[in-house]
């Protein structure tokens, strides 16, 4: 079939998942040498490290800093565009409301996000000194693009297309406390006020 | 999804050419091996009408098939849709997922449920118990097509059949009666 790409490059890309060093745990083949290989099972990302920051102790007069919990799940077998809609749904809700909405949503990503939220809630109570598990709200919820692989999709009459197997990541930041009240929508009066303010704040340049 | 049309496929090109020339002549695009439907008596065609059709047919067979001309009239995007335009379309409020306002809590078990739908947890609980009752029924009947023509009554531990249960089939379950299964 004359449809194959240049064999070497394509095979490299196709078997990208089958890199041998990823299968071996560090140092399993050579028990005597305790060499820590650089490719660990999970590349530590920025979001995972955010949980490790430690603030200096607060002064007596300061208001209490609300607890922040960062959690994520990597390489979910779902499309980034579709996951974005679910992430947008949950932004700014309390965790109970978010779980309720996700439970009765029919999308595949809803189930995944629900698991992530429950894990994060449990982490919050166990490790991050959160008193009430309902007293959390979702400050940030985002989806990111994971690694894509290309595969052949067979059409009729010997024709083929190249399809992308897409994966995504999901990131969530839970903050202790009730959810912030939603912003009132910008009215015409607000816009007019801002315009007038802009006109008034003009100054004369290059003058005496 | 991009479909790659490989031009050096001679068989496909020849097939398309043959189909098109047959369509031009007014015949059905029958593939090799198919029988054409029996034609009825055709009207007598006048001589001048035949000649332009023959001329048209001969012209078509020498030049490239007309399929390639009609591609110019097909709809195709003129410009690439910018990411701003794409975002406006994808993030339009009609496409965002709407927040549901019909979620309540089940008074029995406290799980979430939709107002017009049975509670999932309670339904699963009842379904599991029903499955076990059906297993008992299966053991009693001993095979398919052996259901008796009388009613069935399910009795749990420590329950005796009452006078009302005369002539009914009794199924025993070796556990305490569940709170949600009312006894008549």
What do you see in this structure?
The complex is a heterodimer of chains A (208) and B (184). Chain A is of the alpha+beta class. Chain A has a domain of 113 residues: Alpha-Beta Complex (Ribosomal Protein L22, Chain A), CATH 3.90.470. In chain A, strands 1-5-2 form a three-stranded antiparallel beta sheet. A two-stranded antiparallel ribbon of chain A has the order 3-4. In chain A, strand 3 and strand 4 form a beta hairpin. In chain A, helix 5 packs antiparallel against helix 6. Chain B is mostly helical and 184 residues long. Chain B has a domain of 61 residues. In chain B, the strands form two sheets. A two-stranded antiparallel ribbon of chain B has the order 1-2. Chain B is elongated, with a radius of gyration of 37 Å. The two termini of chain B are 63 Å apart. The relative contact order of chain B is 0.06. The mean pLDDT of chain B is 81. At the A-B interface, helix 4, helix 5 and strand 4 of A face loops of B.
Q: Key terms for this structure?
A:
heterodimer; A: 208 residues; alpha+beta; Ribosomal Protein L22, Chain A; 3-stranded antiparallel beta sheet; two-stranded antiparallel sheet; 7 helices; 19% strand; disordered N terminus; B: 184 residues; mainly alpha; two-stranded antiparallel ribbon; two-stranded parallel sheet; 5 helices; 4 strands; elongated; transit peptide (chain A)
- Output mean pLDDT of chain A: 86
Report the structural category of chain A. alpha+beta
Q: What percent of the residues of chain B sit in helical stretches (DSSP H or I)?
A: 25-40%
Mean pLDDT of chain B: 81
Number of helices in the DSSP assignment of chain A? 7
Read across the widest sheet of chain B, the strand sequence of neighbours is 1-2
| Spatial shape of chain B | elongated
GO molecular function (chain B): structural constituent of ribosome
Subcellular location (chain B): Mitochondrion
Function (chain B): Component of the mitochondrial large ribosomal subunit (mt-LSU). The mitochondrial ribosome (mitoribosome) is a large ribonucleoprotein complex responsible for the synthesis of proteins inside mitochondria.
Keywords (chain B): Mitochondrion, Ribonucleoprotein, Ribosomal protein, Transit peptide
């Amino acid at each position: 079939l004359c449809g194959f790409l240049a064999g070497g490059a394509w095979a490299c890309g196709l078997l990208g998942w089958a890199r041998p060093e990823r299968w071996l745990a560090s140092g399993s083949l050579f028990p005597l040498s305790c060499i820590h290989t650089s490719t660990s099972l999970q590349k530590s990302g920025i979001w995972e490290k955010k949980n490790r920051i430690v603030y200096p102790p607060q002064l007596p007069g300061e208001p209490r800093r609300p607890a922040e919990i960062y959690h994520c799940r990597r390489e979910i077998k779902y499309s980034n565009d579709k996951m974005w809609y679910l992430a947008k749904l949950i932004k700014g809700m309390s965790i109970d409301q978010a779980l309720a909405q996700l439970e009765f949503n029919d999308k595949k990503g809803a189930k995944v996000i629900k698991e992530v939220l429950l894990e994060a809630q449990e982490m919050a109570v166990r490790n991050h000194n959160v008193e009430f598990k309902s007293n959390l709200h979702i400050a940030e919820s985002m989806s990111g693009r994971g690694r894509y692989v290309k595969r052949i999709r067979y059409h009729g009459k010997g024709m083929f297309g190249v399809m992308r197997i897409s994966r995504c990541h999901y990131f969530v930041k839970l903050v202790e406390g009730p959810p912030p009240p939603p912003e009132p929508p910008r009215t015409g009066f607000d816009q007019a006020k801002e315009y007038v303010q802009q006109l008034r704040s003009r100054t004369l340049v290059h003058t005496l | 999804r991009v479909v790659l049309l490989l031009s050096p496929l001679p068989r496909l090109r020849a097939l398309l050419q043959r189909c098109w020339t047959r369509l031009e002549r007014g015949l059905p695009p029958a593939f090799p091996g198919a029988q054409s439907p029996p034609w009825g008596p055709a009207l007598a065609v006048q001589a001048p009408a035949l000649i332009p059709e023959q001329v048209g047919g001969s012209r078509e067979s020498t030049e490239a098939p007309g399929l390639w001309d009609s591609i110019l009239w097909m709809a195709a995007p003129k410009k690439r849709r910018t990411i701003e335009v794409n975002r406006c379309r994808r993030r339009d409020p009609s496409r965002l997922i709407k927040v549901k306002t019909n979620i309540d809590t089940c008074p029995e078990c406290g799980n979430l449920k939709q107002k017009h739908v049975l509670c999932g947890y309670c339904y699963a609980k009842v379904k599991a118990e029903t499955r076990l009752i059906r297993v008992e029924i299966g053991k009693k009947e001993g095979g398919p097509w052996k259901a008796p023509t009388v009613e069935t009554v399910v009795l749990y531990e420590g329950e005796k059949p009452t006078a009302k249960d005369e002539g009914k089939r009794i199924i025993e379950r070796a556990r305490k009666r569940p709170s949600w299964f009312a006894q008549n």
